[in-house]
Amino acid sequence: KQEVTQIPAALSVPEGENLVLNCSFTDSAIYNLQWFRQDPGKGLTSLLLIQSSQREQTSGRLNASLDKSSGRSTLYIAASQPGDSATYLCAVTNNAGNMLTFGGGTRLMVKP
Amino acid sequence: DAGITQSPRHKVTETGTPVTLRCHQTENHRYMYWYRQDPGHGLRLIHYSYGVKDTDKGEVSDGYSVSRSKTEDFLLTLESATSSQTSVYFCASNREVGGNNEQFFGPGTRLTVL
After folding, report:
1. What pLDDT score does B1 carry?
2. Which residues of B fall within a CB distance of 8 Å from A91?
3. What's the mean pLDDT when you consider all of chain A?
């Protein structure tokens, strides 16, 4: 059974810092990996999707990497802003491409 | 986003009553999903559908049933609600384009069972 772990569970940083969120998974037979953002009381917003054959994806200040063989992904946020404060979730898609397994999330607070 | 809506957005009900949550998507996606999100447990899959009338169980399906009579609608029913089913429920659908299977989520339904 696939298990996804996110470390740390919570993170507080001053505005302007670059930061890295970590995600690890136990079964490397994945279709892809998604990073989501969730604001309090809201749904999930898809940030980045990395196919199993890719090493990284970038969107603005966000960069996600994937090392499938070691079962790890990182989300790098450059020049963090208070508006980045949210919970970040990673999820891996099974090999069939139709089922997600989620990590527990990292709750990020960026202080002005 | 996939244009996913959920109704109702909030509901308070009593133990033992039936409850139906509705998910509607406008993107003609084949796959649709129901999750629940609870503190300490994260997001867990309840049921999913891979087409009209085609559904299957997820990780936490006991006490729930689903139906999909049209591509755009996926219903989640709690036949007899229990307090343990108090949770936030999210619907999602899967966009399959060029080998990129990407899930998009609705805004959630907060259900309280008293």
Report:
1. 52
2. 43, 103
3. 94
d(CA A63, CA A43): 22
Confidence of residue B42 (pLDDT cuts 50, 70, 90): confident
CB-based contact B14:B80 (threshold 8 Å) = no
Residue B73 token pair: 């609608």
Q: What is the DSSP letter of B79?
A: S
From B8's Cα to the closest Cα of chain A, the distance in A is 14
Q: Burial of A57 by CB count in 10 Å (0-12 exposed, 13-18 middle, 19+ buried)?
A: middle
B90–A49 C-beta distance less than 8 A: no
Nearest chain A Cα distance for residue B108, angstroms: 6
* Contact yes or no for A32 and B100 at CB 8 A: yes
